[in-house]
Each structure stands twice: as C-alpha cells, then as structure tokens.
Amino acid sequence: MTSRTIIRARNFVLLALAQVIIFSQIHLFGYATACIFTIFLLKLPRHTTQNEAIIWGFLFGIITDIFCNTPGIHSAAATAMAFSRKYILAAFTHKGLPDDFIPGVKSLKWGGYIVYAAICITMFYAVLFPLELFTVRHITTLLIGTISSTALTMLFAVVVEFFAPNK
Fold first, then answer.
1. What string of DSSP letters covers 17-59?
2. Residue 155's closest CA among 116, 114, 125?
3. Which of 11-25, 109-123, 134-148 has the highest mean pLDDT?
4. Residues 6+ apart with CB under 8 A from 134
5. Beta-bridge partners for 28
6. Which phi and psi (to 5°) does residue 98 adopt?
C-alpha cells in the first residue's frame, strides 16, 4: 500500500466520522447543512479515474445515509458529483498540467478554485434536495436549501484550503 493510499484512507475515515457525528447534526436556520465530505471529492488528484471517484463518492454517501437514516439521497448526490467532477475540472485546467495535479488554491488560484468548488458543491445539493423533499413544487425551499448549504460547505472548503499545508 502506498503512502498516498494510506493518507487518502485516513482522510476518508476522519471526514466520514466528522460528517456523521458533527456536521450532519447541524442545520442552520432549518435549511443549511454542510456536507464536508465533498471537500475530499474536490481534492482528488486529476489522474483519479472516474470509476475511483464514483466509488469514493458512493462510499461517503452510503456511510452518511446509513448513519443519518436517509434513504440513499447522499449516495446519489455524491455519486453524481463525483461523476461530473472530471468534466468540471477540465474546464478550469489545461492539458499541460502533470498527472498528479491536485485541484486547490495553489494550482487553480483562489478565483478558479472557488468557482470549481462552487459548481461541484452546488451540483451536489441540486441533486440532494429534490431527492430529500421528493418534489419540485416547493422551489423556494429547494433554492434556499441549495444556496445556503452550498455557501456553508464553501465556507468550510475555503477554511480547509486556507489552513492546508502548502505542498
């Protein structure tokens, strides 16, 4: 097992525990909930295969679904985000970057990283909330939930980037 795999597994366990124990219990103003495991999916290296990203997304989602008693909605949303992440990232990078390129502030600069993260996280919540409510009739509830949860998760993503060691 390589050190990258061990570090990735450690980060997976820590984020899954933090998500289930702390962040899934926080609902600001009844709408905003942070899903910090999306940060793990955002930070996957570019050379990560789409199948591997989808598996990581599904694992995070199913763990959250099991412990938070939600019937597969996090799995569906995280899998959709992991699937589309490659295409969204391609819009912000050029082909000359190395294969071990990791999306972040250092590589994409603040503006590029914030837009990349915002698109991915918004897509996650745009799948999650309609599945959670199981209707699109309450469009204002969907929009408020999506926007506020995206903003809260983006706040955590920016904090993680700000305090992440420069490698």
1. HHHHHTGGG--BTTTB---THHHHHHTS-TTS-HHHHHHHHHH
2. 114
3. 109-123
4. none
5. 32
6. -65, 160
CB atoms within 10 A of CB 67: 15
Rg of the chain over all Cα atoms, to the nearest angstrom: 15
**Domain 3-162 CATH class label:** mainly alpha
Token readout for 76 is 């569906």
Contact between 164 and 104 (Cβ < 8 Å):
yes
Q: Which residue in this structure is represented by tokens 């599904």?
A: 58
Write out the DSSP string of 137-159: S-HHHHHHHHHHHHHHHHHHHHH
Task: Provide the b/e sequence for 33-56 (b: ≥16 CB within 10 Å).
Answer: bbbbbbbbbbbbebebeeeebbeb
Q: What is the pLDDT of residues 149-158, one digit of tens each?
A: 999 999 999 9
Global pTM reads 0.88
Burial label, 133 (beta-carbon count in 10 A; 0-12, 13-18, 19+): middle
Q: Are 33 and 149 a contacting pair, CB within 8 Å? A: yes
